[in-house]
Amino acid sequence: MMTKNPYEVALQIVLVELMKAVASETNRTTKFRTILKRLDKTLRNIEPIMSGNGRLARVLDRPEKETKMFIFHLENGKQMVLKCSRIKCWNVYKKFVHANKLIRLDHELLRFFQVELQVNLSARFRGLVLGDEGDQVLSTVTKRAGGFSSSCNVPGLPDFIVGLDFHLRELKRMLLKDHDQVLTVSAPGGCGKTTLAKMLCHDNEIKGIFGGNIFYVTVSRTTSLKTVVQKLFTHHLYVNNCEFQTDEEAKNELENMMKHMGSPKILLVLDDVWSESESLIEDLKFPGYTILVTSRFMFSRIGTTYKLSLLNDEDARTLLCHLAFPCDGNHMNVPDDLVSKMIKCCKGFPLALTVIGASLRNQDVHKWRTTLQEWLEGQSIFDSDSQLLLSLQTSVDALDDMLRDCFLDLGLFPEDEKISASALMDIWVELYNLDKEGMYTSEYLLELSARNLLSFVPARKDASELEGYCNEHYVTQHDLLRELAIHLSSQEQISQRKKLFIEIHGNDIPAWWIEQTQQPINTRLLSISTDETFSSSWYDLKAPKVQALVLNIRSKRYTLPPFIKKLSELKVLNITSYGVYPTELHELPVISFLSNLRRLRLEHVSLSPSIKFIFQLKNLEKLSFIMCEIGIAFDSYTAEPPMPSNLIELEIESCYDLKNIPEGLCSLDHIEKLSITNCHELEALPKGLGSLSNLKTLRLHSCTRLAELPDSIGNLRSLIFLDISDCLSISSLPDQIGELNGLRVLKMSGCHGLDELPASVTKLTLLEDVICDEETSYLWSYYESDLCDLKINVMEDDRFANFMKIVG
Which helix or strand (DSSP H or E) is residue 676 part of? Predict the structure, then answer.
């Protein structure tokens, strides 16, 4: 009998103890939860090596001193993990130091096991078959090899890139010369500056030099120095709840942190810097690291500038044909001279080629000729950004009226921010009388995406599988396309515009607004964006026809404008904070005057106990709380008549301080959709949940502390869709679940605490789909013969798709 290597036994023991410590601390503390989850995934990825035949022995086939030292580090790592909950949340410095120790522990694990992983890599290239676990571990390590960590939060690359290889080589050469600390990539919007910066960050040579010290921040027009520093602390350095009163304080704290890191090579990427932020670059210049800036502006006084040129004819043809002829890039049905003329009109501008190529995808020769003729009848269209806007207008003019309106509505939201697809569809449903279920409304998003007028960002891998539409997606839009939407919406006088976009910097209210007396504006959609320094000093605004109001906020405190009371036709109100922390929302009672309001969306705001005013809106049909501080407000809430008689959908998403749902909400007897997801502190549902007799959809995804479903759930006889996926603390289902005789879809992947199912599930005769993980599928297999129409859909556990992904 073969004797086990003593170090193999010791290593297995210490790794198991470390996994237990990580699991325990992840549940006990929120301060380091992101890093602990990352460490937990690394440990789970290593498990196959621990159990694989001979694989651990190969890992341990190295000097005894190194192995003993590694085991010693792991034992210290266990104590380090157990210390997490003892560090006070206010101690920013200790949190930073401890976070870096945890990150180093994670890197040590990967480095130690990298030998075995390289063996697996060689085996793959020799054509040998590896298990799924091996492929997954290999995927992680190859992404993070050389010390480069996804904690750097560098965005991914587009699927298709052309014409930037030469620029990448030149940019690397200039960056590594080390003569200037700041290097700016400058070009008009839509030339590929951001893509080039991402390519540089993902380049193996650059990763080998800077390792995990590549920090990527999107700056945008209204960003202050303290906001940039807060993003660095929160998203890259894992220091939460840090807040700076002044730019100078933020600058000093960042300089101290950079000195403490002690790394000789740090790369800071500032993407999309506007001319107003030139001083910000100067303030971020510290000894010891390099700054890469992308901007449509030239900063002649700072560092060196690399001017990104447009595509040459060959690359331009490759890009246009790739999009216009998606099958193989062959354009046999379109004459070559016509393609050449179209490319010539685009002047090598990547964004123009992308958008126009998509608009001509699979179109006949007639469409190509008419499009070209429209351009040739005008002036030269790519001499400047304004000319480019005119050229892109051709693609928008090709949209039908409804789709064109939907595209223009994207200008309602701030630049460089993700836009909730659900928020867009709320507007479209009410203003354009589209379907309230969203099935057809989402087609407009898909069509705009197909034309490259926006990009999808799925919030969850399985989001599209939940209810068949884009509710859980976000969209992004290139700055230039947003400018195009605003430009096309602003051709009429302000008082006559159907869509009005107002941006307020500081307290600089537009002159036309201040001067407005008796003359009302006729806009139907109104967007007001304010920055961090706005003091909520409002002037009266007469806008009696507004049906949708979008308030984009960045300040710490925000008072709702008093003129809201007069918006008698308002149907949709969207209030979103884009600050680092939730905005304190004041004067909430003004909402109670909106008698026709049907959809209210509150995102990333802190609400006072006066939310009772919201629940008194008698015509409200949909209410959404997204990433809000509502725990205190809900704790003090008691149902008082009149309750809203028409509320059909209640959505509570990622409200981290929510522990309990008020019992009074169970009096919303007209509600059909209840979604409480990613609320990790939620401990219990109201006992009276079963009184929601009209409820058709109940979604409880990722409520990780929710321990059970109430017994009254059996009274939900209208329930069709139930999602309890990733509810990690649910250990059993109530017997009453068998009384859900209308249930058709049950999602429960990731419910790892479930050991068995109640026998009453055999009564779910209409159940068609159970979506679960492999472990849970075994529990259902015992009942397949009792449920004739049941289909068990096993979802693979994709541990790497959202690895260390942080939403800013």
Answer: strand 673-677
